[in-house]
Write a structure and sequence with these properties.
This protein is of the alpha/beta class and 439 residues long. It contains 14 helices and 21 strands.
């Protein structure tokens, strides 16, 4: 049988990365091998993100480049996967008719059948499109094909029930449903056998995990019990679902990393209410205080949106003041982007683009200053760093991460990837720390 080749390009979050690995596993079972250039592929797939409008524009532009491959090699299969496939299937099939498949995030089990049966009949919609959402699909029994590395993403649940007014995820990925602890630990054991030592558990609201009476803290304990796992991370939690039990497990289990990504989105209670975030500024800050009581040296990061409809200058300044009070280690910061189906798209009190951009630049500057300030506090301290890969600037240096998810660069001295190395921090520049081995 001829060895065929496939290429996958992934946009968006870690869940999309995981889904691309699922798709790669399906294709490899069909005698496809991965390639690094789409020009070399017999099948090209783009796994899409619908969270922000800019990501959609990049994907549509990229499809135009893939079209050239189709024109020179008509037998090339082109597929659009993921959240944007769910959201814009009509636009894709009408304006990009060279696309052969459109599969939503709950339809990947059907890929092998579609690849085998598809007959290039552009009018046969049943063979071109499957974007049905499921109340049950969690891809149990399917194992992703991962590239070599240190960290393995593992999806523990899918979908979202929170319905934040700015977020399209409940409409593109459906409602929350969780995998069994048994299936998750089975996958963890498998990735450990493949050489991975760090596990990152994924979910749209990862700490909303529930399965047969078991909650997220019990899952963390089960994963930590697997031999060979050195570190466990998770992303992204929702503040509403962080409780004392979770913080106790993090405090008491050394395998669970001392890092929490805690999205705040806004520092204004009024804006948070319009976002349907289900907490106030005061409740969020109380949670931050509790987290530091359990985990005094925790690495704390966040997500922030500026320019949400109706956000006043005073409300934006509340976000600035909250950032200054919490002093996050880092943040993902965005301008509000209106998304179809969401409640916020109905709000008519939009913030002008130039004001959004100005506010974004303000908080980026502030966060960069806080990151450097926090990192400089660590100079002279000892940390344990998991060796990940060569430093970008020199193959004579390693890049690794601390338990708190801070990047550290240090000279090689006989260590190997996957080792946990004790270092002393000697310098801080930008977002990076620099260290030296302890004698």
């Amino acid at each position: 049988m001829k060895q065929r080749k496939f290429y996958i390009e992934t946009y968006g979050c870690q869940m999309n990365e995981y889904d691309s690995e699922l798709v790669a596993g399906i294709l490899e079972k069909q005698n496809y091998n991965p390639v690094d250039k789409f020009e070399d592929a017999d099948a090209i797939f783009v796994n899409t993100c619908a969270i922000r409008e800019g990501a959609e524009h990049r994907v549509l532009s990229r499809l135009g480049q893939f079209k050239t491959r189709k024109e020179t090699n008509p037998d090339t299969v082109i597929g659009v996967l993921g959240c944007m496939a769910q959201n814009l299937k009509e636009k894709i099939t009408s304006e990009h008719q060279f696309v052969d498949f459109v599969l939503g995030p709950d339809a990947y089990r059907n890929l092998d059948t579609m690849m085998e049966e598809y007959n290039h009949d552009e009018d046969d919609e049943d063979k071109r499109i499957n974007t049905r959402l499921s109340r049950h699909e969690v891809y149990d029994g399917m194992f992703p094909s991962r590239k070599e590395g240190i960290n393995a993403w593992i999806a523990i649940m899918r979908g979202c029930d929170k319905f934040c007014t700015f977020c399209i995820v409940p409409y593109t990925r459906g409602r929350e449903r969780s995998r069994s602890i048994a299936s998750i630990t089975q996958e963890v054991k498998r990735v450990v056998e493949q050489g991975f030592v760090e596990i990152t558990l994924l979910g749209q609201n990862v700490n909303s995990y529930r399965y047969e009476g078991k909650a997220f803290p019990e899952l963390l304990e089960a994963v930590a019990s697997v031999d060979g796992v050195k570190r466990i991370r998770y992303t992204s939690p929702h503040p509403q679902d962080i409780d004392d039990h979770l913080l106790q497990v993090m405090r008491d289990n050394p395998k669970v990393c001392n890092h929490i990504h805690l999205p705040v989105q806004s520092g204004s209670t009024e804006v948070l209410e319009r976002m349907n975030r289900t907490y106030t500024r005061a409740q969020y800050l109380n949670l931050v205080e509790k987290i530091f009581q359990y985990l005094p040296n925790v690495g704390l990061t966040t997500d922030i949106i500026v320019g949400f409809p109706g956000e006043t200058d005073e409300q934006f300044q509340e976000t600035v003041s909250l950032m200054e009070q919490v002093e996050y280690d880092s943040a993902f910061m965005f301008k509000y982007s209106a998304r179809p189906y969401t409640k916020a798209i109905e709000f008519d009190d939009t913030v002008p683009e130039e004001i959004k951009q100005e506010r974004l630049q303000t908080i980026i500057k502030l966060q960069n200053e806080m990151t450097l300030k926090n990192n400089r506090k660590l100079i002279g301290q000892s940390v344990n760093v998991l060796v990940e890969k060569d430093s970008k600037k020199s193959d004579r240096q390693w890049m690794g991460r601390t338990d708190e998810n801070r990047i550290v660069i240090f000279n090689k001295n006989g260590e190997a990837q996957r080792d946990i190395v004790p270092l002393r921090i000697t310098d801080a520049q930008g977002v990076s720390l620099f260290g030296e081995q302890l004698n």
